[in-house]
Amino acid sequence: MSAYWEKRRETLRVAAALACLCVVYLILAMTSLHTNSVTVDEFGHLPAGLNLLNTGDYRYCELNPPLMNALSAVPMKLQGIEITLPRDFPEKYRHSFWDNGYLFMEQHRLDYHQLFVRSRYVTVLLVLLLGIVAFFWGRMLVPAHANRAGILASLIWFEPNIMAHARLVTTDAGIALFAVLSLFTLHRYTAKPTWARAIACGASLGLAQVVKFTALYLFPTHVAASLVLVWKQPELRTRRFLLQVLTIFIVCTIVVDGSYGFDGLFKSAHALAFKSTPFQAISSSPAAGLPIPFPEEFLLALDRQLADVQLDTPSFLFGKSYSGGKWYYFLALLAIKTPIPLLVLGALAGHIAIAGKGLPRLATLLLLFPAFTVVFMFSCFSSKQIGLRMILPAIALLWIWIATTLASVDWSRNARRAIGLLLAWFVFETVLVYPDYLAYFNQFAGGSGKGYRYAVDSNSDWGQDLPALGAYMKQQHIDDIQLLYFGRVDPGIYGINYQVPIGGLTPGLVGISRSLYGRGYFLYDHGRLAWAEPIDVDKLHAVFVATIGRTIDIYRIPPTGGAPL
Predict the structure, then answer these.
(1) Is 497's pLDDT higher than 90?
(2) Long-range contacts of 77-85 (CB under 8 A, 24+ apart)
(3) What's the domain range around 382?
């Protein structure tokens, strides 16, 4: 009887610990999301989802699958919010990601920020679910130390890059959740192949596909896991197992098709106007006349993304701008945007794995193979390298592997204390950088205040500090300011009276977004867009005044000054 009550007490202690972690995560996420202005990609994602829910037209999700956009827009749909297209709105822009963003902003200026705040709560809750899935997966991976593994895995909430995107209306945190959920259900299926688990695995794989196209990299993992399972367990070489594996992919296809209302199915490549090189190759192949069992709008959105990846998008790393991709871009970002204690714990987990300890090989495969695949594909085959957010699923999977590998070992008392200190440091890093999670960099890069020297865009400055700038101007009694702002939203929405000094700076104050030190950008200027080249501060001959948040530098141009841009 005493063993029974001891087990009950242990369960209650673990439940209490998980609940405490949930509460701390929710407090950090829900309070900090109010402080960020609408970031670059949020600007288009939310209107796309709202238009989809209001019209049922999937063409509004022209660059992404629809699920995250639709989920994020549910709070606005419940409020009856709409976007009205003007009669003279050009047909070619009717479904444009960015043009509908501008329409939405102009039609809802008074409550614009609050509408995004409410929709951000959806992402916060989805990442809450990510931590819970990690908890149960951790318990399953290390049954001998289930409670320890589950709690360590749930610390995924406090990875600062996860936290940064947990509070935004984009697809990045969503794909981290659904990729982990898909692989968790695959692990459950490989542990005990049944029809119910095969269906659950297929459903979660399908949901991941309609969140973000990064999920396509899950297919090799599912195939590899099935082959490994058959190789290690000859008794599974049966028609029943083959049919179950086939069912996974059939259910996945049904979920994708159903997400688009089963509309536009079985079109051939000949019938679709593809623009990307991979799809054009398919269109010119002998298989081009075969019907494709996926929705037309899903295929066209994927084609647009592939075409976008092929563009010569400017990137910035280690203080230098360049065109095209570099194979080490994401590895470098992981080195400077991952907390140092997590890097140490990762190295320790790697040592354990090399020594032949830690997780079983199949479990390691399910975690590391998709993580490495995502990093490899974006590193070597993408010219669009603009942020660590692009490999967020890999970060989530790597943390779960590190946490469960560490939990699987019986450590000495001193080793437990050392690991505990590293974990405390890891969590403290996330609390310390509050609320500026997007701008987080570790001490190798000089901390969050200096990371922009190494990487910009969504790595540090994604246009999130307009509320802080407005508060600063009010506190300092500044009536207006010259502003070079990296973002899509009109700063006037946040009460900022500004001028965009494209013709040249004049004496007075100027605010400069740090992303503009590394790249050019189309600046919003009272209803029009104006191109600004990357800014060299040394040539401005200006006096530094202050930094707003961690993204906008304020300078004073002296009365005798003034400088061209």
Answers:
(1) yes
(2) 77/50, 77/53, 81/50, 81/108, 81/115, 82/50, 82/54, 83/47, 83/50, 83/51, 83/54, 83/107
(3) 320-439
